[in-house]
Amino acid sequence: MARPPADPDAYEKRGKFLASSFAEAQFYGRPLDEPQKVSVGNPLVGDEEQIARVLGIPAQQPGMSLKRIADHDRCWRNAALKKGYDAIILMSTKGFTEWEAGGKIPRSLELNLLVDSPRR
């Protein structure tokens, strides 16, 4: 079982991050043992540059501290909510290009749920 975030308001500040695989989720700490099912109605989909362009907030930069990453995630979350999105689906540049060209969904995604999203 995963530990909840140290900050009890973390999900409300930054959103809840879900990854495509257990290994990818380990970046955020101890992943959950069981997958979660969620519903998303209006996601912002893209690679970092596309999402940054839509939100008007630059992408993360290499070497950012965890605090700066958390602040950046908060900015993206708030901007996306203001534009009516309920989630951000982040793909690699290659994955996003293939998805745009032919609808092929990449195997590796990062999903940031911006609001509580129970399964429908």
Cα-based radius of gyration, to the nearest Å: 14 Å
- For the termini, the CA-CA separation is 24 Å
Helix residue percentage: 25-40%
Count the DSSP helices. 5
Number of beta strands: 4
Residue stretches low in confidence (pLDDT < 50, at least 5 long) are none
Across the major sheet, the strand order is 1-4-3-2
- Classify the secondary structure makeup into a structural class: alpha+beta
Q: What does the model show?
A:
- With 120 residues, the protein is α+β, with helices and mostly antiparallel strands.
- It has one domain.
- The chain contains five helices and four strands.
- It has helices at residues 10-14, 22-25, 48-55, 66-82, 93-102; strands at residues 16-19, 43-46, 87-90, 110-113.
- Strands 1-4-3-2 form a four-stranded mixed beta sheet.
- The radius of gyration is 14 Å and the shape is globular.
Task: Kindly list the characteristics that best describe this protein.
alpha+beta, globular, 13% strand, 4 strands, 120 residues
Give a quick summary of the entry.
With 120 residues, the protein is of the alpha+beta class. Helices cover 37% and strands 13% of the residues. The chain has one domain.
Write the topology of this structure.
Elements: H1 10-14, E1 16-19, H2 22-25, E2 43-46, H3 48-55, H4 66-82, E3 87-90, H5 93-102, E4 110-113
Parallel strand pairs: 2-3
Antiparallel strand pairs: 1-4, 3-4
